[in-house]
Design goal:
The protein is α+β, with helices and mostly antiparallel strands. It is 33% helix and 28% strand. It contains 11 helices and 20 strands. It binds flavin-adenine dinucleotide.
């Protein structure tokens, strides 16, 4: 089998790239190792910039018919005081909110839209196991499938296979690890009709806890120091439930839903970046090029923006059968700076906010920067812009390749 582009991984980056390339008439096959998109290990945030991409594709109204929650403000409790940190309602986008939608619904939607193009194919349960290299150029992939091993040849292989990317490892691309001193515990608690909505974060008493409204339940994230899970387990589930109740007492009567540690998943956090995102015949995007921390909830945004930039730059050369290494370098040139800016902010937040907060040296009173947000509500537009749009936003090209 030969296609113009094979994409490794059906996450946000891979599915969006597949859709955009197929829309431009490029033959593309997306390979996803799992049988479905139904995994909990996913952020649920659909940013205003991603909603803008949906608008530019002409599918926004249909997308918003799917069940979702709309978050217009980011609120939290810091050192016992409630504070609004970001206000999306002034963003220069069609949707002035962040949508919360289970990521499997988002990916299903992208798959449905992509299948409308006859040059698109999505193959589930297809796991990339290796790369095919000829004369220093990557010319295809080796794939494990339910019916046995296969080879797929392509003019371009895109690694969008996430933080543990097989593609980037097999390609021998050099990774710079920027360090992440935290991990996240991920769990569900039921949500009552009279609970407050939206996203709520807590930074106090040596703990960081975030609750995402998923309709009938809260998806909860409890941030721990890297390697701290075993310690927590040793202290026992009762102690853990008590910690959560001390953070948000209204949750106390449903903490019994956390029966044992199998109800609490450990999500390992990484922050890293490839020095070079490409080799002749191969490009990495999304977390495969730059693993993002959950801080700010912006990794999906960056992954989608990478896909839009890659499609804008590469659809023409791929359609002409002439995708050069210089074209691939242009994708990195375009996306490297936004990635560096966001990762710098994430690493600073880890060092200056998250680290001290987890070690109990966090703020005893509302920090001055947050007081400013309280006194001057206009300033809340700045964090909203960083999270909702980011730097150097991408727009879908409507030129035919
Ligand atoms: C705990 C945690 C919480 C987070 N929460 C948020 C959040 O709320 N909002 C946000 O914006 N970001 C969040 N992030 C970051 C976000 O998850 C990533 O930045 C984003 O998922 C990157 O998208 P991607 O498409 O590049 O990779 P992924 O989403 O990782 O997708 C990669 C896909 O490739 C598939 N795959 C892997 N290997 C192979 C293979 N060999 N062959 C075929 N397929 C393969 C995987 O199954 C997967 O479907 C969080 C990260 C962590 C660790």
């Amino acid at each position: 089998m030969h296609v113009q582009c094979v994409v490794a991984g059906g996450g946000p980056a891979g599915m969006m790239l597949g859709l955009l390339l197929a829309r431009a008439g490029v033959s593309v096959v997306v390979l996803e190792k799992h049988a479905d998109f139904l995994r909990d290990f996913r952020g649920d945030t659909i940013h205003p910039s991603t909603l803008e991409v949906m608008y530019e594709l002409g599918v926004l109204d249909e997308f918003l018919k799917r069940p979702h929650q709309e978050v217009r403000q980011l609120t939290g409790r810091v050192a016992g005081e409630r504070v609004t940190i970001g206000d999306f309602t002034h963003l220069p986008t069609h949707c002035k909110f962040l949508a919360l939608m289970p990521q499997w619904d988002f990916l299903d939607f992208l798959a449905e839209k992509a299948r409308a193009f006859k040059t698109f194919e999505l193959r589930m349960e297809h796991e990339i196991s290796g790369l095919i290299e000829e004369g220093g150029r990557i010319v295809g992939v080796r794939v494990k499938t339910p019916t046995g091993p296969q080879e797929i040849r392509a003019d371009l292989v895109v690694g969008a296979d996430g933080r543990q990317s097989v593609v980037r490892a097999q390609a021998g691309l050099v990774v710079d690890n920027l360090g992440a001193p935290i991990d996240v515990l991920w769990m569900r608690l039921s949500r009552r009709a009279d609970d407050p909505g939206q996203v709520f974060g807590y930074v106090e008493g040596g703990h960081i806890f975030v609750m995402f409204d998923r309709g009938d339940y809260w998806q909860c994230a409890f941030v721990i120091q890297k390697g701290g899970f075993d310690d927590l387990k040793r202290r026992g589930m009762d102690a853990f439930r008590e910690t959560l109740a001390s953070i948000e007492p209204t949750l106390r009567d449903r903490l019994g839903e956390l029966g044992d540690w199998s109800d609490v998943k450990l999500l390992t956090v990484l922050v890293d970046r490839l020095r070079r995102w490409h080799r002749p015949g191969l490009l990495c995007i999304g977390d495969a090029a730059h693993a993002m921390s959950p801080i700010g909830g912006v990794g999906i945004n960056l992954a989608i923006q990478d896909a839009v930039a890659a499609a804008n730059i590469l659809a023409g050369p791929l359609a002409r059968g002439a995708c050069s290494d210089a074209d691939l370098a242009r994708v990195q040139e375009r996306r490297d700076w936004p990635t560096r800016v966001v990762q710098r902010v994430q690493v600073l937040a880890q060092e200056r906010v998250i680290g001290p907060a987890l070690s109990g040296k966090g703020p005893q009173q509302l920090p001055f920067a947050l007081k400013l947000l309280r006194w001057f509500p206009m300033l809340r537009r700045i964090p909203a812009r960083l999270v909702g749009i980011g730097v150097r936003p991408e727009h879908v090209s409507h030129q035919s390749p």
